[in-house]
Amino acid sequence: MAGVVVVGSMWGDEGKGKVTDYLAQKADVVCRYAGGNNAGHTIVYGGKKFALKLIPSGIFSGHEVIMGNGMVVNPKAFLEEVKYLNDGGIDTSKIRISDRCHVILPYHLEIDELQEKRKGDKSIGTTKRGIGPAYVDKYSRIGIRMGEFIDEELFLERLKETFPMKVAEYPELKDMFTVEGIFEEYKEYAKIIKPLVCDTGMLLDQYLREDKKVLFEGAQGAMLDIDYGTYPFVTSSHPGANGVSEGAGIGPLYIKEAIGIIKAYTTRVGSGPFPTELNDATGDLIRERGHEYGTVTERPRRTGWFDAVVVNQSRRMSSLTGISLMLLDVMSGFDTIKICKAYKLDGKEIYGLPATVKDIERCEPVYEELPGWKEDITHVKSFEELPVNCQNYIRKIEELVHCPVRMFSVGPDREQTVVLKDIKF
Fold first, then answer.
1. Out of 21, 41, 213, 307, which one is annotated catalytic?
2. What's this model's pTM, rounded to 2 decimal places?
């Protein structure tokens, strides 16, 4: 029983796609277990750059890829992404979609927009892809699941039950949609998707009992976890390894390794507290060097120094067995580099993330400053080839987050990933 999970251990955009693509070469099956098409993964494959929002980035491995029950799936967006991949020469016939995942319908996107407008200056900066509203319907027990969606008669019946409830809550929807209009468009998507739908939990259980190597692919970052992230500036699911069992339909004992993906610095997209944020020339320089713009939205990402408090929270949530340190090359050229080792709140040093945004915003980062390095490291193939100050930076991160660095990247290509200790299924 050999499952490995790859999780973002900051606020997302850490470079999970590249590590997933690397590990997928060893796997037999790749499964994504949470989120929807608000997550973006960028993969360089065959000399081409692909930006995925919904389909697991393991699709490039040629193996079967599974979209688990913890996901919310926009059928229209899914089929657009399938076409995008097919046009790029990528086979999508081995995709399997859980019959228990929830369906995002067009009114969910409008509700997302309406909610953000109603919140005014208190908006949380969602991608407005309908993710949150779909999860709300799931937990309100009025959502439409994929198994219902692909049954034409049942889909219409459920739509007639659900849509009037949403109109009662958001009267604006009455002038935008009709049950008949939604049904006529989306029943056609359902016909195309139907052959891909199955009980993926049973499928995964079978594969794991057969000792097949299963890679679980996280989306977004652990600091966006609905419970342990910077609530309410979070997503609506559990992006860390803590979400695998619920979102894939298998037990936690199937997980052998949990690899946390972190950057050599910190970024965040959208609103929310960010203790180590740099609103200065240094932050701008990191953004440009790291090409820190959203895969889905192209929004400029907020940037800051490395935050060990954040990564420690992620380590605890996901029981990380190792970390992959991404974009290390971006930090070349600084005279000194700061690492946040703790926060100061009300005069005391703390090492955990406070529960309320009010308290997080009052936190002052406690920094340790290290000598930087000037050398170009994009060509290195081993830890020993790194400048001594760069080696010390990695070792300090390991010390502060209580977790070994298992690999690091010095550029965007697969060949620019250096493995220190192999990750075995």
1. 41
2. 0.92
Q: Assign residue 252 a region: left if phi > 0, alpha if psi is -120 to 50, beta otherwise?
A: alpha
Q: Tell me the per-residue pLDDT of 367-376, one tens digit each, with 9 for 90 and over.
A: 999 999 999 9
Whether 76 and 222 map to the same domain: the answer is: yes
Domain end marker among 174, 193, 212: 193
Q: Which of 124-138, 198-212, 214-228, 344-358 has the lowest mean pLDDT?
A: 124-138
Query: pLDDT tens digits, residue range 186-208?
Result: 999 999 999 999 999 999 999 99
Catalytic position from the list 138, 166, 263, 341: 138
Distances (CA, A) of 242 to 189, 222, 288: 32, 9, 33
The b/e string for 51-74 (b: 16+ C-beta within 10 A; e otherwise) is ebbbbbbbbbbebbbbbbbbbbbb
Please say if 41 is a catalytic residue: yes
* 280 has catalytic annotation: no
- Are 166 and 306 part of one and the same domain? no
- Residue 413 annotated to the active site: no
pLDDT of 43 reads 78
Q: Is residue 373 part of a domain?
A: yes
Which of 177, 193, 209 is the endpoint of a domain?
Answer: 193
User: Which residues fall in the annotated binding site for IMP?
Assistant: 13-16, 38-41, 127, 141, 220, 235, 299
Contacts of 344 (CB under 8 A, 6+ apart): 350, 363, 364, 365, 366
